């Protein structure tokens, strides 16, 4: 393969070349604050003069979102925005442009199933309706269709069919556009932007100096956003395409994205794989890892009764009620650590901070591809207790064929596996049923193993396991860099809202990993 060297100049060179033009750029910005070159006294769209209160004939209005700089009359402005009621309009007051609402100009937004240009003859008028959009909060005049409910649908349906999500299903007076919900969803998944800062940013887009009184719709926005996340997860999992099962019939882990590269019987394994000769069985090893993160705490706010998850156990977190019932049967862990430097065990029975209902999260991933395992995440209450991690591990194994040989990585595996059989006997039948059928090799991640005694390094090293290849077992640590910043949002959430949010972020993590696997395999094909 021939390599070609490409010379790249200094990265700041374009910036230096721009400096002589900044006066010009600044002048163009100031030009947009005035009327520019507009001198005519008639509307360019209708050709009619527009008179103000003093009888002066001059077009006053312009749209910030529409392309172009023409000013128009009031009637044309309203007419042109019947299909764009959320554009920002400015009016020239002979000194500067000031923002005005389309509602104040007389625009009424009609809903329903009428043809273009037609309106309902029996509308239900709402003089004040709030719409949360990517360019701010809008107060509009809305007209529901009441002449043909069978065809037009309920009011909430009329909004949804215009891609406006109602804040309530009963007589909605507030909605958020699909566009703003999608925008925040991507921003919070990629940049970990929290809802409070995002919503306040929307308010400042239209009212940065806080000179106008705006309606507080923050709670409505967060409620709608939680529903939106849940619906998107259901949609992506194909639950809306299954007419034989209602949403309530969703099975455990069904909404989660499984790893497409790990061995899965009936999906990517050849016929007869389970009968492979001993020398080739390593090809069907399933590498797993578990670990805990203590940044993902939750304060003692709300409760499971007041704030339940919208789909408990449907993706990555375990089912809440059975897990809590299991924890009630567990006493403090009294296992002493016989290996040096294992802080997870030394702090297993101590709360990290007072006032927290949850001190962290334990999660399982596939060690080679770092996909979070379905039903493989649990809350921690007193450090990294065996009971919680046992449950997470056993719960995730429900989604894997028991005939696959497992290689389980854990940074404290030397202590954890000692009495694992006795510990697993305490689990609920829900997750314990087929554990006895699994064959498991226990290993310590390659970086963490240097903190263990020499006996552990000889016994649990991946370097000594045939078939391990170059697997380092540290893959479980990498999702924490992605999930850590989420803690600033989830620590003040109720338990259900927090679980839904974590599931959503893990779903995004797995989706990005899945797309990345496709790109990686294409490199080998080329």
UniProtKB/TrEMBL annotation:
<dbReference type="InterPro" id="IPR041457">
    <property type="entry name" value="CxC2_KDZ-assoc"/>
</dbReference>
<protein>
    <recommendedName>
        <fullName>CxC2-like cysteine cluster KDZ transposase-associated domain-containing protein</fullName>
    </recommendedName>
</protein>
<dbReference type="Pfam" id="PF18803">
    <property type="entry name" value="CxC2"/>
</dbReference>
<dbReference type="Pfam" id="PF18758">
    <property type="entry name" value="KDZ"/>
</dbReference>
<feature type="domain" description="CxC2-like cysteine cluster KDZ transposase-associated">
    <location>
        <begin position="102"/>
        <end position="209"/>
    </location>
</feature>
<dbReference type="InterPro" id="IPR040521">
    <property type="entry name" value="KDZ"/>
</dbReference>
